[in-house]
UniProtKB/TrEMBL annotation:
Superkingdom as given in the UniProt entry: Eukaryota
Protein name, per record: EEF1A lysine methyltransferase 4
Any GO BP annotation: methylation
UniProt domain Methyltransferase type: residue ranges: 57-166
Catalytic activity: N(6),N(6)-dimethyl-L-lysyl-[protein] + S-adenosyl-L-methionine = N(6),N(6),N(6)-trimethyl-L-lysyl-[protein] + S-adenosyl-L-homocysteine + H(+); N(6)-methyl-L-lysyl-[protein] + S-adenosyl-L-methionine = N(6),N(6)-dimethyl-L-lysyl-[protein] + S-adenosyl-L-homocysteine + H(+)
Keywords: Methyltransferase, Phosphoprotein, S-adenosyl-L-methionine, Transferase
Record's keyword annotation contains Methyltransferase: yes
Length: 256
């Protein structure tokens, strides 16, 4: 995979991680890739929140080994969804020896499951890809907010009361938490830091549990900020996290 190049204004010219066409082309060539962390690096986080007999929805499964490694660890009732039909067909073929595990072509913004279908919903880097085109995490575009709200509303809808949504991300908590801490999603938000050298973050949301007073206040502040849409003069520093194996780059823009 070729490394990203810089545009004339110095920004990194990234592929569009939000499109089906990008992932279809990538999955045609790439056999497997795990973003952020390997399963063994956060299996303790999964075990804390998931029983092995529970029904699990894997959002944006991609060609990761995560579902297989969880299956081998005793989590057999896994339903994998991805909007790339190329990905799903290849993964279904590759995992015929895991007959209980399911593979479905589906957009996470429009999940086709009935309400309260899953005990656990899990994603690793999928939400990051949804907003990969956002250049200023302090002031997301309306499109960025909308795509996150659509996806998270679907997650909450298909999750059973008392079930967990587990989200693993490289997005800093002060950017991601306001998107997760929403009253309409009907869950609380807990944070754990993962990784030895570069830190990643895992959020656990339990459906039906009341948000903390701090998160309720955070929600108010976030909504007021969005409504005011006060951009001001913004100076940005572009900071990227590069994975050497795939030479893929996600970009975040920060105020100074």
């Amino acid at each position: 995979m070729a490394a990203s190049e810089r545009t004339t204004n110095g920004e990194l010219d990234l592929p569009d991680f939000t499109t089906e066409s990008y992932w279809d082309e990538r999955f045609k060539e790439e056999e497997t890739y795990d973003w952020l962390l390997k399963y063994h690096q956060f299996s303790h986080f999964v075990e804390k929140h998931v029983n092995r007999n529970e029904r699990i929805l894997m959002l944006g499964c991609g060609n990761s080994k995560l579902s297989l490694e969880m299956y081998e660890d005793g989590y057999h009732n896994i339903v994998n969804v991805d909007f790339s039909s190329v990905c799903i067909e290849k993964m279904k073929e590759k995992h015929q020896h895991c007959p209980i595990m399911q593979w479905m072509v589906m957009d996470i913004k429009d999940l086709k499951f009935p309400d309260c279908s899953f005990d656990v919903v899990l994603e690793k880097g999928t939400l990051d890809a949804l907003v990969a085109n956002e250049r200023d995490p302090w002031n997301m575009t309306d499109e960025g907010y909308d795509v996150m709200e659509q996806s998270l509303t679907q997650v909450s809808r298909v999750l059973k009361p008392g079930g967990y949504f587990l989200s693993i991300t490289f997005s800093q908590p002060h950017f991601r938490r306001p998107l997760l801490a929403r009253t309409l999603l009907k869950w609380n938000v807990e944070l754990m830091t993962l990784g030895d050298h570069f830190h990643f973050f895992s959020f656990a949301m339990e459906k039906g549990k009341e948000m903390s007073a701090k998160d309720k206040e955070l929600e108010k502040e976030s909504m007021l900020k969005r409504q005011s849409n006060a951009q001001g003069n913004v100076k940005r520093q572009y900071v990227y996290v590069k994975d050497e194996e795939s030479e893929q780059t996600f970009l975040n823009a920060f105020h100074l």
